[in-house]
Design brief:
It catalyses: 4 Fe(II)-[cytochrome c] + O2 + 8 H(+)(in) = 4 Fe(III)-[cytochrome c] + 2 H2O + 4 H(+)(out). It contains eight helices and twelve strands. The longest helix has about 35 residues. The N and C termini lie far apart (about 75 Å). The radius of gyration is 28 Å and the shape is elongated. The protein folds into two domains: about 190 residues, Immunoglobulin-like; about 90 residues, Immunoglobulin-like (Sandwich). With about 350 residues, it is α+β, with helices and mostly antiparallel strands.
């Protein structure tokens, strides 16, 4: 009796947890709201599997309860039931039905695998098909637009309604590239090249995740996939290809000197610098810093002074002793890196 009372006490909490699992905290971060052909195929097959499992469960429990009610032992009935060796018709039935159900699942699964594995350029677009090289680092993402001649970090831009091909690599450990609203996940493995493609049906900002445990800050290894109309995407590409203009404000000009003295060894801007860390050519338009912090001056200063405190295990050096004047100037310069407005 005590056990049942304890169970009833926890029932409301269990139901609440069950309901909360269905809450959508962020837009464009769920496979249950597909926004592309890949994710739509995955969602449709998920529903197909769910319907088949639900049908099997209902039929099995219905038969179970019917037999339980119809053939239960009556009071005073002590006879041994008739013993039978088997029933050929039943055995054939419960063998054939699972084969049929598995075939229903297998046909779309196999055809879908060929569709997902087709990483050839779209014949309708041809040489204009966007191809992006993705490299996973602890704990950030590098996006190389090799045909266009530039590198982006933490945010990857694609044109809407077009098949985009991704070539996946890893710099250090195993990662997994995943944009839930647009498609499935695929591992990035050191020394191995994998390929996949994605397509967005509508413009928007789609949240991406690393789906493979890769270190202490794995949970913070997020990125954004931004889908634009083709003319807007072309304008963004032009801005990324262009040389970064000299800042007009004196404070930002001073900040550029600070950047070149302290940061350019790891971060590329407009083709200058290194790709050891994320490229910063369009930093002013980023929504977040370090993959998860709101892009404001306070968080940016905290990140520069002590990145380890905000993202454990990352490789960015700290600058705790940078004076306030240089810090203000550096932030002003980073705020001027806006290829879209420039």
């Amino acid at each position: 009796m005590k056990l049942w009372k304890t169970a009833w006490r926890f029932l409301p909490l269990s139901l609440l947890v069950f309901l909360l699992t269905g809450c959508l905290g962020e837009t464009n971060l769920t496979a249950l709201d597909p926004k592309g052909p890949q994710s739509q195929w995955l969602f449709d097959n998920m529903l197909l599997s769910l319907y088949i499992m639900a049908l099997v469960t209902i039929v099995v429990f219905a038969i179970f309860f019917i037999i339980l009610a119809k053939y239960r032992r009556a009071p005073g009935d002590d006879e041994i039931p008739k013993q039978v060796h088997g029933n050929t018709a039943l055995e054939i039935t419960w063998t054939v039905i699972p084969i049929i159900l598995l075939t229903i699942l297998a046909v779309p699964t196999i055809t879908g695998q060929f569709m997902l594995a087709d990483t050839e350029p779209d014949p309708e677009i041809g040489d204009d098909t966007v191809q992006i090289t993705v490299t996973g680092h602890q704990f950030w993402w590098q996006f190389d637009y090799e045909d266009e001649g530039f590198t982006a970090g933490q945010e990857v831009y694609i044109p809407v309604g077009e098949k985009v091909i991704f070539e996946l690599h890893a710099q250090d450990v195993l990662h997994s590239f995943w944009v839930p609203a647009l498609g499935g996940k695929l591992d990035t493995v050191p020394g191995i090249t994998n390929h996949m493609w994605l397509e967005a049906d509508e413009p928007g900002v789609y949240k991406g995740k690393c789906a493979e445990l890769c270190g202490p800050s794995h949970a913070l290894m997020d990125f954004k996939l931004i889908a634009l109309e083709r003319d807007e995407y072309d304008a963004w590409v032009e801005g990324m290809q262009a040389e970064i203009e000299e800042p007009t404000e004196a404070l930002a000009q001073q900040g550029r000197d600070v950047f070149e003295a302290s940061c350019i060894g790891c971060h590329a801007v407009g083709g200058m610098g290194s790709a050891t860390g994320p490229a910063l050519s369009d930093f002013a338009n980023r929504e977040v810093i370090a993959g998860y912090l709101e892009n404001n001056d306070e968080n940016l200063e905290a990140w520069i002074r002590d990145p380890e405190a905000l993202k454990q295990g990352n490789n960015m050096p700290a600058f705790p002793d940078m004076n306030d004047e240089d810090m203000e100037a550096l932030i002003a310069y980073l705020r001027s890196l806006d290829v879209q407005n420039n």
